[in-house]
Every structure is written in structure tokens, then in C-alpha cells.
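Handout, section B. The chain below has 436 residues.
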Amino acid sequence: MPVEYLKRAPKTAASGEVDVQTNVQAMLNEIEAGGEAKAIELARRFDKWEGEIVVSAEDRARAANKVPQKLKDDIRFSHDKVRRFAEAQRLAIRDTEIELTPGLIAGHRNIPMNAAGCYVPGGRYTHVASAIMSITTAKVAGVPSVIACSPPRSDAGISPAVLYALDFCGADTILNLGGVQAIAALAFGLFTGHPADILVGPGNQFVAEAKRILYGRVGIDMFAGPSEIMVIADETADPEIVAADLVGQAEHGYNSPAWLITLSRTLGEKVSELVPQMIRTLPELNARNAEAAWRDYGEIVFADSREEAAAISDKYASEHLEVHCADLDWWLANLRNYGSLFLGEETTVAYGDKTSGPNHILPTKGAARYTGGLSVGKFLKTVTWQRMTREANKSIGTVAARLSRLEGMEAHARTSDIRLAKWFPGDNFDLTATDN
């Protein structure tokens, strides 16, 4: 049956996107040509920052002294969960080897990248959790040089709480830089001499575009868009909790989608009534963001079976997916496309965003169809190796020579010929191309 909407969003993730590619490309070109001096100029222009770019050990210590002990304890609590989950991921990623044929052994190794650039947003909110998520995961992966950038606030520099979190989690270098100039500095190795092999972390549309343009020259975690939430709820769900969770993500920004798939019309109608009421009780800025997000991007979809609900959910491939339904094991087994899954009303996106352990840097705009979120594996290169006995060349070399000649690659074939002639001078091998 056609999808039935109790509330349909007039806008999608593609709506209202500003074409910033030209401006960002021009800035990247200017910074690459002008180096550190150009990055400093842009920091002064956009962030009004006149201080040092590289945060000193003394500045790190001063920031720590400004952070209340209770907040330090909260940061350490969150770091512990994120670190332990990342360590479990690392243990699950194993080197391997196999003897494919007598005398031919092949394998792979998982090698950490040399340098990781971690961007932590500034702006409206103090993104302590983003600092914890990116730096901790890179360090657990074993990256030798982890470089962090975060926008300075006028003459105050990076927020003391964010700076403390970056330092506590193990950032080797911290830069007072935001926006395109930060991404460029990380990619080009400005102020550090260590060009990043991978760029990770959320940011605004300019940061996202800079990462997109640089992808290929460096690795990136993912192409990121506005934060998203989807909730699947049946008649057992609590409409007040469902509504609160939708609003909790809508406050991210005016273009943050909040979607509900419901198997109960009654619940859907109640949530539709509660969401605007909850938004009106928020502080002004949060309410303004959430109101616009719910108005333009919020949806309530009715499904007549859990199979249909799962199919709709997989089509959306949301960043965060909560399930407030009976038989949670069924949903875990059958849902396929999501950035991170939250099963049952006992957990919620906010827990994952801040402290429960799994990473909160996640795919958006349907990218969960082909990738997961930030993990230890993003900072590792899986590289292959092989070794072979001379005897194994008899079978491997003859087939390689024949296939090379079939493809018209004579020089390839001769690399087999020369080995077989050297080690087995008295043997005759069929090295001619096999007819099509």
C-alpha cells in the first residue's frame, strides 16, 4: 500500500542548500598558496582571533583550572565509556593470514594512519562530546599524531571545557582554528608539519564542503549533513517520551529532520499534539530551531505492519534510529540501514550523543545505506601482504603469464617467465595465452 503520512515534511535534506563549493574551493586554494599566514588572516577575519594558533601547554593547564570538578568528572565518565567501546572495536579488528595454496601465504594487517585531523565545532553550543568522540577513538586506534581544531571565541580562545576535553582525551596538538581554514590547516599540515591522513568530525556546511573537496587527497569520515532522528513506535510506546526524543534532536538546527514511523494512529496523533507544546517550553534559540525543523522537516508516517515500518525506515536510512516497540530482538535482526540504533525507551539519542559509548559522529542524508559512523576502523588501513615459495611459482606463475597474455599485457607475462626460467630451467611450462 502507498505510504500514508499523518504529517508530511514540505522540505527534504536537499532543500535550501546553499551552493558554497566555489567559495570554499577558492579559500582552500588561497590557504594552500599562502600557507600559515593566510590561515591566520582568515582566523582574524572570521573568528576575530588575534592570539596564538597552537594552544600551549600553559593554556591547556589554565583551561583545566577553569573547569569545575563536577564537569571534569562528567567528561572523564564519558571518555571512559567511549574509550572502552572503542577498545572493544579494536579487539574485533584482527590481522589475518591464510595459505591459499601450498607455498603461497597471504594476509592483511590493520595499520593506524600516521596523522588524524579532528574538527570540533564551536558556535552556538559547547561541543564537549564531539571532542571526546573523535580524539578518544583516534588514540585507541593507535594514531601517532592526533591534531584537533576548534573555533576560538573572540579573545577567549577555545571554550575551557572543550579544551580540557581535547587535552584529557589525548590530542597531541590543538589549534585555535575554525571553519575552512581549520580543515585546510589539518589537510596541509600547517602549524604542525603533519598533514592529516584523515579528517573527522562534524561541522557547518562550509566545513562539510571543505572535507568533500579534499576527499581523495585525504580520507574523511563521511559526508555529513544536519542531524537526523527517526523513531519507530507501536501501541506500547509512551507518546510523551517519543515526542521528547523528537524534539531533543530538532533543537540541533532549523534543518534537522525528525521523523516518526508509527504502527498506531492514536499514538501518532498524540505525538503530533505534544511536539509543538514541548517546543514552546524550550529556551528561545532552541525553540526557534526546533519549531522550524519540525515545521519544515518533521514527518509522521503510518505503517500497518512492522515489516512495512522496517522497509520505510531502511529507505530513509536515518542517522539516529530509536525503536519503541515490542519484541526488540525482531527489530535488531531486521533493520539494516541506520547510523546508530537505540532499542527501547530506556535508551535515547542524547545518551549516545554524550556518554553511553558508541560514537556519535554518524552518517546523514541516507549515507547509512553504505557506511556506518566513526569507529576505530576509520583510523586503520587494512593492507594486504603475500609471500611465496619458489615451488608455488609453478602454478601461480603459469596462470599469471597466460592471463596476462590474454589481456595483451606482455610485460606482465614476462615477469612470470623470468622467474620460472631462473628457478626451473629444465621444465617446460605452457605460458601462451588461452584462446577466448
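Note. The chain has 15 helices and 14 strands. Compare this with the example in section A.
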